[in-house]
Amino acid sequence: MTAMPLLRAERVTLxxxxxxxxxxxxxxxxxxxVGLIGESGSGKTTLARAFLGLLTxxxxxxxxxxxxxxxxxxxxxxxxxxxxxxxxxLDPRMRVGxxxxxxxxxxxxxxxxxxxxxxxxxxxxxxxxxHQLSGGQRQRVVIARALAVSPRLLILDEPTSALDVTxxxxxxxLLAGLGTERLLITHNLAVVxxxxxxxxVMFAGRLVESGPTADLLARPAHPYTRALRDAxxxxxxxxxxxxxxxxAAPAGSGCPFRPRCPLAxxxxxxxxxxxxxxGRRVACHRAEDVLAAAVGEVS
Length: 299
Ligand SMILES: Nc1ncnc2c1ncn2[C@@H]1O[C@H](COP(=O)(O)OP(=O)(O)OP(=O)(O)O)[C@@H](O)[C@H]1O
What we know:
CATH topology: Rossmann fold
CATH architecture: 3-Layer(aba) Sandwich
Helix content: 25-40%
Largest sheet: 8 strands, mixed
Region (Disordered): 233-253
Family: Belongs to the ABC transporter superfamily.
Distance between the termini: 42 Å
Pfam families: ABC_tran (PF00005), oligo_HPY (PF08352)
Oligomer: single chain
CATH superfamily: P-loop containing nucleotide triphosphate hydrolases
Bound molecules: adenosine-5'-triphosphate
Strand content: 15-25%
GO molecular function: ATP binding; ATP hydrolysis activity
CATH class: Alpha Beta
Protein name: Peptide/nickel transport system ATP-binding protein
């Protein structure tokens, strides 16, 4: 029997000022790491904010165990689900030891050296301020802060994109070794390859493909997954060019990827329903053709 996921989005629509930017997304945060991938503006951070309880769905529900977030014990939720922000979120005036201590319950403040050690930092660095650390060290301090309350799940939004490639790899190794569950948001497929057993690909506020990360990378079933894979092959690769909303078809007018899709046909003028295919879930009329072309072009 599969364990109940800690967090689950059920047909969640999210937006700002009454305008939806994430449409009917269903996603379970399961074991082994979950990646949420997509280009700038696809809605990843908006969905992460809903998972952190910072944005209320316009429709649908976020489930925390067997309760919706509206009814859940928020004290337990805030301990179990911790965000890992970018290193710039550290208070520049605060010594990093004090910064980690602030995240600990009062009676456990003696654990600062232990936590710094856990993220591979020399406890002697506790007396420094953020600008006296390297980017990778600062990111480790942010992770130590998140770990202070022994969370069950970390929600990481581009945790390493500001770091150079070798430092990025070391921080990813640290995250992989922690044993804490993670939902990782990134535009970089090399990052999810290391940290996430399952991945979800988002385009224009919709999930277009979900499944085991290894399968998505080896044999994408959606042309957008394939384009992402081919655009960003390595750690440290540049993000896919942000093309803006104008290049996604407006909601209600067929497949949103159609204007950019090399495989679009007349059928794509009706929106594809997500369906199960070859161990993944994909929303594309031509998924069989994309899958069949493991190598080379489809037309
Ligand atoms: N506070 C806000 N008010 C209004 N619109 C917003 C707000 N935040 C985000 N948006 C819009 O919602 C859409 C999705 O943005 P979101 O930040 O979730 O995307 P993203 O995939 O995380 O992008 P990035 O990788 O650049 O962070 C975009 O069109 C964005 O302009």
